Structure formats: C-alpha cells, structure tokens
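Hey team,

Filing this mostly as a record. A colleague (T.K.) asked me to run one chain through the structure pipeline before their review meeting, and I want the input and output archived in the tracker in case anyone asks later how it was produced. No errors, nothing strange. Just documentation.

Input sequence:
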Amino acid sequence: MKQATILKTKYTKLISQVASSDFNEAGEAVSILFEDSWVRILVIRTKISSDITIEVESSLPRDLAGGNGETSAEELLDGAISHLYYLKELRSIGFTLDAFRQDCLWTASRIFGKAVDLSVFQKLCPPDCSSKQSPTL
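Output structure:
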C-alpha cells in the first residue's frame, strides 16, 4: 500500500507540473513514473487532449548480472513469469496489452482522465516493488 501511495503522489506531481516546453515534436510529454531493471512506467500527456496515458513497459532486465555476478536462467524465468502475471493483472483493470517481438518488450497502456484511483496504483506496483526499493521521487 505504501508503494502505491508513493506512485500516486509522484503521478499527481507529474501531471500538475506540465509546461509547454515539456512537449516533443509529436505533441507528447513523456515522464517516467517508475523504473527498475524489469519495468518502466510512463505517464504520457498530449497537447490536444486532457487525457493521460499510463504505459507500462516490461522486458528482460537490461543488466542481466545479479548480486553474485550472474543471474541464472531459472531466476530469469521466474522473473519473466511473475512479470507476465503482473501484465495480466493490469489487463484485468482495463489496460491494453501489446508485444514487440523484436525487442521482447511487453507493454500495457490505459488512458485516464486526471483522477486515477489508488486501486490502480496498487495494481501498478510491479512484482519487485517492495519497501527496499522505492520509486525515485
């Protein structure tokens, strides 16, 4: 619950601080809500709409080295399975899933108005999001 509250607080801060200079050539402002080795959660705003998209990207860790210098295939498989279940849970609350086969990248996205319920942030907390690893504020 604590991590969900942290995510919601950061989300509220991100959407309240948008400036016209934050938008790219495509008319989007993209901010990182959370990032770890398996997951990146983005908040995407556009110039033409007040709606906000939350997009979750999940892939194999960029740095495959674990604490002992090597991540086993079993650890990678267990991590991949838990993150696929995480994406499945996001689908159950209205996120749309997509896969980019070349990069082995899975995404889940959903469009929201400005108000997003705390229950969404509870589901957004990835499997490794624990008290020892807080999102950077």
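Quick notes for T.K.: The longest strand covers residues 49-58. The radius of gyration is 15 Å.
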